[in-house]
Design a protein that fits this description.
By secondary structure, the chain is an alpha+beta fold. The protein folds into two domains: 1-59, no CATH class; 60-191, Roll (Flavocytochrome B2, Chain A, domain 1), CATH 3.10.120.10. The protein contains nine helices and six strands, in the order αββαααβαββαααβα. α2 packs across α8 (152-167). Mean pLDDT is 84; it is low at 3-15.
């Protein structure tokens, strides 16, 4: 009996046995973790930062909400949708309500890029599940900000992506995603 090639495939130094793996997601996470480990080494002067990150046993980095809050912009969903790189606009994405300018990564985030689906919206769910279109295993829209029904591992994946954007030397924190206050007032008055 022949052993299927997908069963015996191993990947580089990790030595991980892969079976029926989405290679795009695998390599996307690999390079994300490589970038995170470089940022941790740079920020914390830790030349061994790569080991726990690549093994998935790293302690999470605290995101500095209070420090950023004073100078941060408040961006509505409608404003975020316009930041899609078209007509000279920057490339913004949101994860867990934090908005980042990823224009420096235009090769990946501009139209036709691997991660363009994440631009102009809060797609936190997609960062956790790896689903980038349609619906995920729970039947929820992949490209949404909903964290409903996600597992602990999926929440950790979101936090790993958040760390990447927060510590990346080319991507910048812009502000917080907020509901449109005018729309909120109008909706509240029509419900009364």
């Amino acid at each position: 009996m022949a052993i299927p090639i997908w069963l015996v495939t191993t990947v580089g130094v990790t030595g991980v046995l892969l079976s029926k793996v989405d290679y795009n997601i695998f390599f996307m996470k690999f390079f994300r973790n490589l970038s995170r480990s470089k940022a941790r080494a740079r920020l914390y002067n830790n030349k061994y930062a790569m080991i726990p990150v690549m093994l998935g046993i790293e302690e999470p980095i605290k995101i500095k909400d209070d420090i950023d809050a004073e100078n941060a912009m408040h961006i509505t969903r409608e404003q975020l949708e316009e930041m899609d790189g078209f007509e000279g606009t920057p490339l913004y994405l949101s994860i867990k309500g934090r908005v980042y300018d990823v224009s420096a990564g235009g090769k990946f985030y501009a139209e036709g890029g691997e991660y363009h689906d994440w631009v102009g919206k809060d797609a936190s769910r997609s960062f956790g599940t790896g689903c980038r279109g349609g619906v995920d295993r729970t039947g929820m829209d992949c490209l949404s900000e909903s964290l409903e029904g996600l597992t602990d591992n999926e929440m950790k994946e979101i936090d790993r992506w958040l760390e990447l954007y927060e510590t990346h030397d080319k991507y910048t924190f812009v502000g917080y995603l907020v509901d449109d206050p005018v729309e909120k007032i109008v909706m509240h008055q029509t419900l009364d």
